[in-house]
C-alpha cells in the first residue's frame, strides 16, 4: 500500500479527553489518517504535558475515531493494526516537512 492510497490530516490541534478518574487531560493530535484496508479513521495523539520531554521521547497514543456524533475514541486492539500504525508513524514522522 502506498501513501497515496491513505488520506492524511497533519493539522495539529489540542484535544481535551478524560482519564479513568474523570480528570481532563490535554492531548496534541499529531497525525490523523483513514486506512482503506481497515476502513477506519486513526488518530495519533501525544499527551500535551509530556510533549516537550527533555530526552525528545514522546509517547504516542494511537486511537480509532468512531463515526458517531459523540466523536468517541477507541483503543487499537489488533496486532495487524498496531503493525500498520507503527509503519505509518515511522514513515510520516521521519519525512522532512515541506
UniProtKB/TrEMBL annotation:
Q: Which Pfam families match?
A: DUF1292
InterPro entries attached here? UPF0473
**Coiled coil residues, start to end:** none
Would you say which domain of life the source belongs to? Bacteria
HAMAP family linked to this entry:
UPF0473
Alphabetical list of NCBIfam families matching this protein: PRK13678.1-1
Q: Which PANTHER family match?
A: UPF0473 PROTEIN CBO2561/CLC_2432, UPF0473 PROTEIN CBO2561_CLC_2432
Return the similarity comment.
Belongs to the UPF0473 family.
Task: Name it.
Answer: UPF0473 protein SAMN05192557_0509
